Amino acid sequence: MAQEDQSGFVRWQEITREHFSSVCNLILALATGLLAFYSTQLLDKKLTLCCAFGFAAAALIALSLSVAFALWCSINRLRDFRLTTQISRLRENGETELQYLRDESKSLGKFTWGLFWFQLATFGIGAACGALAVVIQVWPR
User: Fold this and answer.
1) Smallest Cα–Cα separation from 95: which of 84, 104, 103, 87?
2) C-alpha dist (Å) from residue 45 to 52, 61, 74, 136
3) Residue 137 phi, psi dihedral angles, 5° rounding
4) Which residues contact 72 (CB under 8 A, 6 or more apart)?
5) What is the pTM of this model?
6) Of 23, 55, 16, 39, which Cα lies nearest the Cα of 119?
7) How confident is the model at residue 5 (pLDDT cuts 50, 70, 90)?
8) Which parts pass through the membrane (predicted)?
């Protein structure tokens, strides 16, 4: 029974890892697309009202931060995967004192989740500010 529980845990852990990657990549793609859209709107001077311009500028900053957090998150995950591979290799070679590496891996995992939530929050703020900029610009018409 314990073996079945373990295989279920490993399976769900893999599913979680895959969905985490998918969501991070989706938010990165959306943030990059919105960043390009609002940059074009500002460069083409289509957001001329003062409030619309301000919200669009805030959107650019927040979306840029979202992209930065996404990249940082990806790099941090790679570091965590590399460390996990190292732990696995050392364990196969008979090494037993691995707790410090496991603690570091756990720390990297927690930090990755923190970066993910910052990525998501800054994307939400950027998308909301950008939407407000467009609404403010077209509302008087």
Assistant:
1) 87
2) 11, 18, 34, 14
3) -70, -40
4) 115
5) 0.86
6) 23
7) low
8) 20-38, 50-72, 116-139
